[in-house]
Design brief:
Blueprint: H1 6-23, H2 26-34, E1 42-52, E2 55-64, E3 67-72, E4 76-81, E5 84-88, E6 91-95, E7 99-107, E8 110-120, E9 125-129, H3 134-155
Antiparallel strand pairs: 1-2, 1-9, 2-3, 3-6, 4-5, 7-8, 8-9
């Protein structure tokens, strides 16, 4: 289940809040996980799930001034070779200038299950769900895309 109920939402926020507090804030967590470009600033961070072929993965979606990024809360096991396994965090990074679309979606059988589809210029799709604050996340991601489109439009004239 990836829809935020009160208990799941509270536990996810508590776990993320503890991690953020221990590591010195969302900026520090992001910097330790992804590194930061000069002048880059965190705009928002959202606890959510990323849909993967292995099922939904809980983590944090970061919206920075130059990119969006997702990192799982826990490392996941994957097979690497010769039956060996490796534990690694699931990470996705999309530079904002590679963002093509931010699309809202909902499960027709259960409209309360809402998703945000991110599409890159290379036609890679990422589906995020289980937002505690879906409307705010959608609004902020769309604003980031609209800002880029305005900048691109101004630069092409």
């Amino acid at each position: 289940k990836t829809s935020p109920n009160v208990t799941d939402a509270a536990l996810a926020r508590l776990a993320q809040g503890t991690k953020v507090f221990e590591e010195g804030g969302n900026d520090k967590v992001f910097q330790q996980t992804f590194g930061i470009f000069p002048g880059e600033q965190l705009k928002k961070a959202y606890v959510c799930y990323l849909s993967t072929s292995a099922g939904p993965v809980i983590g944090t979606l970061y919206l920075f001034t130059a990119r969006i990024a997702f990192c799982s809360d826990n490392p996941l096991c994957r097979n690497i070779s010769n039956g060996q396994q490796e534990w690694a965090y699931y990470k996705v990074v999309v530079p904002l200038d590679q963002l093509r679309a931010v699309n809202p979606s909902a499960d027709p059988r259960n409209p309360s299950d809402k998703y945000i589809q991110i599409v890159t210029m290379g036609n890679h799709e990422f589906w995020f769900m289980g937002f505690i604050s879906y409307e705010k996340a959608l609004k902020n991601l769309r604003e980031a895309l609209q800002f880029l489109l305005r900048v691109f439009h101004q630069c092409s004239h």
